[in-house]
Design a protein that fits this description.
Elements (H helix, E strand, L loop, with lengths): L1 H23 L2 H6 L5 H21 L1 H9 L2 E2 L8 H17 L5 E5 L5 E7 L2 E7 H6 L2 H16 L2 H31 L8 H41 L3 H11 L8 H10 L13 H10 L4
Parallel strand pairs: 2-4
Antiparallel strand pairs: 1-2, 3-4
Length: 293
């Protein structure tokens, strides 16, 4: 989940900065100067929406390394048997998945792992010391298979496209509503007034929250697919089921921030629609129903 959180936050930050910059340069005023220019607004929305998503994707690897303090293992000089095993396991899984061998890293922290990167053949798979210390080698391998499956499925690219599309609609609809409010409610007939700018800001916040529900739903679906991908790569669904059960058995106080959404989602309620991961039990149940080729 950390990779998803970083992706979304970076994307939103870039989108806000770009949107504000274009507003300062007067692009908003040009779009609405002689009545609303829908075509120009749509182009503007696409540029703002996708630029943030693409930049955050390209920055995902260095941002992940920086934020977690992950140390990349030199495949030619691993620092001990555990690092050598990690390199060998990830490389074997990547070969089975038909992707380029990722960089492999370890970072200090509670049980977790992540994969990120803009390209299938230039990715990063990282695992925490907490996960290595709390699981068997087979369970760790299953988690690594899950992360390799994310890369093989092109999840970061697909998430970028989804995020870019929802960003585009947020920017487009916020300005459409802002223009309507400015004209109909505030009766402004020349250019755009304060009503337009206030409405745009409010709508971007509201629509952004609604858009995050869509992104979270997609994220939950890709977790099921990555679990299934791990089962296929391992040749059995049992290792991933045991790894998930192990994670589900951790005390809540030991869960890192990046796993809190899974716990919340399991309780249902409003918070569940914003969770990027399904409940652990739902993921185990999905694996129980699948067939491994």
């Amino acid at each position: 989940m950390k990779r998803i959180f970083l992706f979304i936050v970076t994307n939103l930050a870039v989108m806000v900065v770009l949107s504000a910059t274009l507003r300062i340069l007067g692009v908003d005023r040009m779009i609405t100067a002689q009545g609303l220019n829908v075509q120009a607004l749509l182009i503007f929305s696409v540029v703002v929406g996708f630029t943030g998503a693409i930049i955050s994707l390209l920055m995902s690897k260095p941002m992940a390394k920086w934020s977690t303090g992950a140390q990349v293992i030199d495949p030619n000089a691993p620092g001990g048997p555990r690092e050598a095993w990690l390199i060998d396991t990830v490389h074997q899984l990547a070969d089975r998945a038909g992707i380029g061998r990722p960089e492999v890293a370890i970072y200090e922290g509670a049980p977790n792992a992540f994969a990120t990167g803009a390209f299938k053949n230039d990715s990063l798979v990282a695992v925490s010391t907490g996960l290595l210390d709390s699981m068997t080698e087979e369970e760790v391998a299953a988690v690594l298979g899950h992360e390799v499956a994310h890369v093989a499925n092109g999840d970061m690219i697909t998430l970028t496209l989804i995020q870019g599309v929802v960003n585009t609609f947020v920017v487009f609809l916020a300005r459409l509503v802002g223009y309507f409010i400015d004209r109909v409610v505030f009766k402004n007939e020349r250019g755009v007034g304060i009503g337009y700018y206030v409405t745009v800001i409010v709508c971007e916040i509201v629509f952004g929250i609604l858009a995050s529900i869509i992104v979270a739903w997609f994220s939950r679906q890709r977790e099921y697919r990555a679990d299934a991908g791990s089962a296929q790569l391992m040749g059995s669904r049992e290792p991933m089921m045991r790894a998930l059960a192990r994670l589900g058995g951790l005390e809540p106080g030991e869960l890192p921030k990046s796993f809190e959404a899974s716990g919340i989602a399991g309780k249902g309620g409003l918070a569940a629609i914003f969770a990027s991961h399904p409940p652990i039990q739902a993921r185990i149940a999905a694996l129980q129903q699948m067939r491994v080729a």
